[in-house]
Design a protein that fits this description.
Keywords: Aminoacyl-tRNA synthetase, ATP-binding, Cytoplasm, Ligase, Nucleotide-binding, Protein biosynthesis
CATH topology of the largest domain: Rossmann fold
Protein name: Tryptophan--tRNA ligase
Enzyme class: ligase
CATH architecture of the largest domain: 3-Layer(aba) Sandwich
Strand content: 5-15%
Distance between the termini: 32 Å
Structural class: mainly alpha
Mean pLDDT: 94
Bound molecules: iron/sulfur cluster
Function: Catalyzes the attachment of tryptophan to tRNA(Trp).
Subunit structure: Homodimer.
Number of strands: 5
Radius of gyration: 21 Å
Length: about 325
C-alpha cells in the first residue's frame, strides 16, 4: 500500500523556537518515518506579513533550513525544499484565486486577529488577504491527504477543502480533500505566559545558547498567586510547569508536589528547567554547528528537495490547467 502524503510548511521569520519544535517539527520527524512527506520553508508566506522588510530574508531561510535539519528532518526520508524554488505553488495560487469568493477569505478568523496583532504593519494588502489561497495551493499541488495543524489552523484547512471542492465541481475531479492531522501538544506558552510567538518577543529559540536559555527561563512568569516563597503554588496555572509536562515528564510529579507544598521555590524550579532544556537542545546545537560549516551540503539538500517537489507539482499543475482549458 502506498504511503499517505503529508504536506507542511514553516515560515522563515527568525530562528525556530521551542513552540515550533514541539508544535510542528517533532511531529514532522515522526511523520517522515511512516508517510510520504513534503516539508517546505514558506518564504512566499513570510512576504505576506513582512514584505516591507526583507533584508534578513535570505539569511532567515538558511537558518530555518539549518534548524529543521538539526532538529531531525532527514532529506533521505522527507522532501525538504524552499517554497519559492517551486514556482508551481505561485501559479496554482493564481488559478485558485480566480474561483475563491472574497467572502470566504474575509471570514477566516485569523485574518482580523492577525491584523490586530501586527497593527504596526500595513496588512491591508491583496497578498495578506489571499494567503489562505496560497496555503490551499501549497497543499493541493501535492494532492496531500494529511496536513499537520494545530486547532487554530483548522479553519484554514477547511477553506482548502472548500476550494478543492469548488475546483472539482467547476472543472474536473482532480484534488483530494486533505484531512487534518492534529498536533499532539497545545500551544506552548512563551516567557510571558502568552502563546509563544515571534510577534510577542517571548520565544526561546532552539539555537539559544545555554546562557540565553537560563536568562529567558529565569524571567518566565509563574503562578501569579505565589508571591512569597512560603506561599503554596498552583502548578497547573504556571507556564513553567507546562514545560515540565513536555520536557521533563519524569520530574513533573515531584515538581508539582513540591510546588503545592511550598517546599520548592520558583528560582530553583526554573534553574532545574533551564538545565533540562539545555540538555534537551544539546544534540540539536551540535548538529546545527556541523551544518553551519557545510554551506554546500545545505544548498544541495534544498536544490534536490526542490527538484523532487517540482516533479510532483508540475504534473498537478498541468492537470489543473488542462481541466480549466489552459493547456
Ligand atoms: S515552583 Fe515551579 S511550578 Fe510552582 S509556581 Fe514556581 S515555577 Fe511554577
Amino acid at each position: 500500500m502506498s504511503k499517505q502524503r503529508v504536506l507542511s510548511g514553516i515560515q522563515p521569520t527568525g530562528r525556530l523556537h521551542l513552540g515550533n519544535l514541539i508544535g510542528a517539527v517533532e511531529n514532522w520527524v515522526e511523520l517522515q518515518q511512516s508517510h510520504d512527506c513534503y516539508f517546505f520553508i514558506a518564504d512566499y508566506h513570510a512576504l505576506t506579513t513582512s514584505y516591507a522588510d526583507t533584508k534578513n530574508l535570505a539569511d532567515d531561510i538558511r537558518q530555518a533550513a539549518i534548524d529543521l535539519l538539526s532538529a531531525g528532518v532527514a532529506p533521505e526520508k522527507a522532501v525538504l525544499f524552499r517554497q519559492s524554488d517551486v514556482p508551481e505553488h505561485a501559479e496554482l495560487h493564481l488559478l485558485l484565486s480566480m474561483l475563491t469568493p472574497l467572502a470566504w477569505l474575509e471570514r477566516v478568523p485569523t485574518y482580523k486577529s492577525k491584523i490586530e496583532e501586527l497593527k504596526e504593519r500595513d496588512l491591508g494588502t491583496y497578498g495578506f488577504l489571499g494567503y489562505p489561497v496560497l496555503q490551499a495551493a501549497d497543499i493541493l499541488i501535492y494532492k496531500a491527504s494529511r496536513v499537520p495543524v494545530g486547532e487554530d489552523q483548522l479553519p484554514h484547512l477547511e477553506l482548502t477543502r472548500e476550494i478543492a471542492r469548488r475546483f472539482n465541481y467547476l472543472y474536473k475531479e482532480i484534488f483530494p480533500e486533505p484531512q487534518a492531522a492534529l498536533t499532539r501538544f497545545p500551544a506552548l506558552p512563551g516567557t510571558d505566559g502568552r502563546k509563544m510567538s515571534k510577534s510577542y518577543r517571548n520565544t526561546i529559540a532552539i539555537s539559544d545558547t545555554p546562557d540565553a536559555i537560563r536568562k529567558k527561563v529565569g524571567i518566565m512568569v509563574t503562578d501569579p498567586e505565589r508571591i512569597k516563597r512560603e506561599d503554596i503554588g498552583h502548578p497547573d496555572v504556571c507556564p513553567v510547569y507546562q514545560y515540565y509536562k513536555i520536557f521533563a515528564r519524569d520530574r513533573r510529579e515531584k515538581a508539582a508536589k513540591e510546588c503545592r507544598e511550598a517546599s520548592r521555590g520558583c528560582v530553583d524550579c526554573k534553574k532545574e528547567l533551564a538545565q533540562v532544556l539545555i540538555e534537551y537542545l544539546a544534540p540539536i546545537h551540535a548538529a546545527g554547528r556541523e551544518l553551519e560549516q557545510e554551506p554546500k551540503l545545505l544548498d544541495n539538500i534544498l536544490k534536490n528537495g526542490a527538484e523532487r517537489a517540482r516533479a510532483v507539482a508540475s504534473a498537478t499543475l498541468t492537470q489543473a490547467k488542462k481541466a480549466i482549458g489552459l493547456a
